[in-house]
UniProtKB/TrEMBL annotation:
Region annotated Disordered, chain positions: 252-275, 390-418
UniProt protein name: Lon protease homolog
GO biological process: protein catabolic process; proteolysis
Keywords: ATP-binding, Hydrolase, Nucleotide-binding, Protease, Serine protease
Limits of the Lon proteolytic domain: 697-887
Compositional bias ranges of the Polar residues kind: 390-402
Length: 903
């Protein structure tokens, strides 16, 4: 029998049909006809042979005998040249006795074929290796498949592979190789492997190779996927960012925007490098948090907030809130990030001498105050040194009193400066702030000033809680941040003006906590919310009066009074401090401007009339500025165009030693460096106080009293009274408080009681307000806008009533103060020093004061003022009236009274 023949069907490259596999392919009409005719006579087996790649040898040796399973012509088959679909089922390998030449695809040539024997059992090792590789691949395929159905299929096949016998292994290899995807040459080689052992080995290799390919491609896929999704995300965010920036830019460049410098600008501007600056800021913040003391509360809070910050998307409101909190938190001078005063300054033996020199250099006079400050500085120094010594001893032998095994004692906290808190009380411009600055300079510490005037809200001192929109720390923390150290000198300005308990909390109580040495080592700012140690801070308070300061606050302070300056002191201060300061501030030199003593005094007396020197400084500043303009114009005129010559001239003029009066330049015109008193009107205008004394009139019913204003400034105040038809009543006006009203009542009662002795009424028991005419008495204190209270106007009121009712006048150069009692005694009052100085400034030369206030005049009033004034110290109202009206001026009926009582 000849060798079997089969019609050969060429499979187009890269199709390949392995035994046991199925394959469907499109075929042409002629091929379909040929296959159809085949179906008619036999069981339709063809030799399906793979067509080699176009560039490889076109000879084929191996193929697969395949049964035609189906031939259909689907309706929707798209290819017009190949409208049929042929399904083949691979049965077994075939081999051609000799390689056949492939030429045409669309007919079925007949060729002799051989059926290679697939008998034989492969070796156990080969089968094991095959199984192992197959299972590994199946496992990976199961894992990688996305559809659960497919996963199950792979696992089911794996279960069959596990149980496969050695005889069936080769068949299994065919099934698996047909099922898994692999490369064409590998499949081709596998088809050619007729030997069972060889076939299994090839299958093993193919599986191993496919496993690793599968693994690598999976990795690549997931990496690509990941990077792709990250890229996508980044791209998306960048698009959003760019859109936001565009919006912002368009807002900023719109006409309503803030102005130049924030617009779209050139790309080169450093202002545009937001990202970099932002990253730098964050890195800086992080460094600062890391630098905080390990284990400290501030660090814990800092780390917690930092973590929150990282979780919250940038650009959100919350992110900004946390960031600004962290910036505040890290900028508070904690022990870890701030330096304290080096002890060397305090240890230095010349510390006190240098401190005194500093105070003297900054301030004229104030001897008593400077002495008090020196005591204070000495105490600060001793305490600091003792504190340092104690800390050192503890450091040297930390466990002297600790038994072995006892818990280590925590290092004691520095006690800080727990001396009294200084409270400078005095009118404005008397040097309270600048004394504080001098103390800070002497101690080598930074100086900060917190103005408490008008603070009604506790949060201004203690900060707003962070839940509050736009919350921020209080003034104490802000001052600490500005100082950058935990031991600055902080001046609490105007503590008398701080508000008391209201619905915004109690600012005075917050202030007490700040100042209380027992509490202030753990001051709690609501915003920062971590206890801050203020014990190293040196607080100094200032106020204008003591009246409105709460008792507990006053209790913690040591009061140092600055009452104001005499004209003599003012002249010295002006010459030594204020004028040089203003000359320098206005770009002139000492040689270019001088004010004569007369001119200075004129400014002090006619243009300002205050206790301090602030207005004086302002007025001097105005004179200096006026002269500075004159000087510049003079130079311009003389030197022509501005330029080098101008500068040279100016320098020349500066260095030139002048005769103190005039400066003659090239053109012969003179520069007057001196300002005299008569020129002041041209510069400062009409004197504010000119003629005040002249206008003061000696008039019936008018008397001058002495007062201290709310600003702590002394002065005189007219007490005016007049009679008008009425019902015998007293009318009081001028924004008066209860106490002063009562003083008025007492004064009138006393006058009514003593009207007969004073010669006001003709008979005893007659009411001077009813006889001869029925009148009302109206008493008025001018400057009605200012609230007035206190008992010290008593004797002035009595004098006013006596003058009104008797017709006698009190001379206009007399002023008085003193409280009265119904029984006719004059009792002492406060503020004598300020009142006397105020009277002196107002050109009053005679002052009536209570007898008990003699010591105040002697101790507190400067000698030159005392020398220029005459003091009447009175014990009773009678004495006061005598002093005011002059002895014998009133028609006293004292003798008669005495006589009558004896009778
Ligand atoms: P206060 O705080 O009492 O209102 P300041 O301390 O601000 O007043 O003083 C106002 C100005 O007066 C400052 O320029 C200060 O240097 C100056 N001054 C006040 N007293 C003296 C003084 N005794 N010697 C020199 N300058 C003084």
């Amino acid at each position: 029998m000849g060798s079997p023949k089969l019609q050969v069907l060429l499979l187009p490259h890269p199709l390949i049909l392995l035994p046991t596999a199925r394959l469907t392919l499109p075929i042409s009409r002629s091929l379909a006809d040929a296959i159809l005719s085949l179906l008619d006579d036999s069981d339709a087996v063809v030799a399906a042979i793979p067509l080699p790649a176009p560039d490889s040898p076109s000879e084929v040796t191996y193929g697969t005998a395949a049964r035609v399973a189906r031939l259909v012509r689907p309706r929707n088959q798209s290819s017009p040249t190949q409208p049929y679909l042929l399904s083949l089922h691979g049965i077994t390998r075939i081999r051609f006795p000799s390689p056949i030449q492939i030429d045409k695809l669309d007919n079925l040539p007949v060729h002799n074929v051989l059926y290679p024997s697939s008998e034989g059992t492969p070796s156990r090792d080969t089968v094991e290796a095959f199984k192992h590789a197959a299972l590994a691949l199946l496992d990976r395929l199961a894992k990688d498949s996305l559809q659960p159905q497919r996963k199950d299929d792979w696992l089911r096949i794996a279960a069959i592979v596990e149980d496969i016998s050695e005889q069936r292994a080769a068949w299994m290899a065919d099934v698996l190789v047909a099922a898994v995807s692999s490369q064409y040459p590998d499949k081709l080689a596998f088809l050619a492997a007729t030997d069972v052992e060889d076939r299994l080995r090839r299958a093993t290799e193919l599986f191993v190779k496919q496993s690793s390919i599968q693994e690598v491609s999976k990795k690549i896929a997931s990496a690509v996927d990941e990077s792709f999704s990250r890229q996508q995300k980044e791209y998306f965010l960048r698009q959003q960012l760019a859109a936001i920036q565009r919006e912002l830019q368009s807002l900023q460049s719109s006409p309503t925007s803030v102005g130049p410098g924030f617009g779209t600008g050139g790309a080169t501007s450093e202002l545009d490098d937001d990202d970099q600056a932002d990253a730098d800021d964050l890195a800086d913040l992080r460094r600062k948090i890391e630098a905080l003391d390990v284990g400290s509360e501030e660090r814990k809070v800092g780390i917690r907030e930092w973590r929150r910050l990282k979780r919250i998307p940038q650009g959100s409101v919350e992110n900004g809130v946390i960031r600004s909190y962290l910036e505040w938190l890290t900028s508070v001078p904690w022990p870890s990030n701030s330096t304290t005063t080096p002890l060397d300054i305090l240890k230095d033996h010349s510390f006190l001498t240098r401190a005194r020199a500093q105070l003297d250099a900054d301030h004229y006079g104030l001897d008593q105050i400077k002495r008090r400050l020196m005591e204070y500085l000495a105490v600060v120094r001793l305490r600091a040194l003792a504190d340092a010594a104690q800390t050192q001893t503890q450091g040297d032998n930390p466990s002297t009193d600790a038994s072995p095994g006892a818990a280590p004692t925590p290092p004691t906290k520095s006690k800080g400066v727990k001396g009294p808190i200084l409270l400078f009380v005095g009118p404005p411009g008397t040097g309270k702030t600048s004394l504080g600055q001098s103390i800070a300079k002497a101690l080598g510490r930074p100086f900060q000033r917190i103005s408490l005037g008008g603070v009604r809200d506790e949060a201004e001192i203690r900060g707003h809680r962070r839940t509050y929109v736009a919350s921020s720390p209080g003034s104490i923390v802000q001052a600490l941040r500005k100082a950058g150290r935990n031991d600055p000198v902080i001046l609490l300005d105007e503590v008398d003006k701080v508000g008391h308990s209201n619905f915004h909390g109690d600012p005075a109580a917050a202030l007490l906590e700040v100042l209380d040495p027992e509490q202030n080592h753990s001051f709690n700012d609501h915003y920062i919310n971590v206890p801050i140690d203020l014990s190293q801070v040196l607080f100094i308070c200032t106020s204008n009066t003591l009246d409105t300061i709460s008792a507990p606050l006053l209790d913690r302070c040591e009061v140092v009074e600055l009452s104001g300056y005499t004209y003599d002191e003012k002249m010295h201060i002006a010459k030594r401090f204020l004028l040089p300061k203003q000359i320098c501030a206005n770009g002139l030199s000492d040689s270019q401007l001088t004010l004569t003593d007369d001119a200075l005094l004129h400014v002090a007396t006619m243009y300002t009339r205050e206790a301090g020197v602030r207005s004086l400084e302002r007025a001097i500043g105005a004179v200096v500025r006026f002269k500075a303009v004159e000087w510049a114009e003079w130079l311009d005129k003389e030197n022509g165009a501005m330029g080098e010559e101008w500068n040279a001239k100016q320098n020349e003029n500066r260095s030139e030693k002048q005769d103190g009066n005039t400066n003659v330049n090239g053109s012969g015109k003179e520069w007057r460096a001196i300002v005299e008193a008569h020129e002041l009107e041209k510069i400062l205008g009409i004197p504010r106080w000119d003629g005040e004394e002249r206008d003061r009139e000696e008039k019936r019913g008018v008397v001058y009293g002495l007062v201290v204003t709310g600003m702590g400034e002394g002065g005189i105040l007219p007490v005016e009274s007049t009679a008008l038809p009425g019902t015998g009543r007293l009318k009081l006006t001028g924004s008066l408080g209860d106490v002063i009203k009562e003083s008025g009542e007492i004064a009138l009662s006393w006058v009514k009681t003593h009207a007969f002795e004073l010669g006001i009424t003709a008979g005893r028991g007659v009411d001077p307000l009813k006889v001869p005419d029925v009148i009302d008495v109206h008493l008025h204190l001018p400057a009605g806008a200012q609230k007035k209270d206190g008992p010290s106007a008593g004797i002035a009121m009595i004098c006013a009533f006596v003058s009104l009712l008797s017709g006698a006048c009190v001379p206009k150069d007399i002023a008085m103060t003193g409280e009265i009692t119904l029984r006719g005694r004059v009792t002492p009052v406060g503020g004598i020093r300020m009142k006397v100085l105020g009277a002196h400034r107002a050109q009053i030369r005679k002052v009536i004061l209570p007898w008990a206030n003699r010591k105040d005049v002697e101790h507190d009033v400067a000698l030159e003022v005392r020398r220029e004034m005459q003091f009447f110290f009175v014990r009773t109202i009678d004495e006061a009236l005598d002093a005011a009206f002059g002895h014998g001026a009133l028609g006293w009926r004292k003798e008669t009274v005495l006589l009558e009582s004896r009778l």
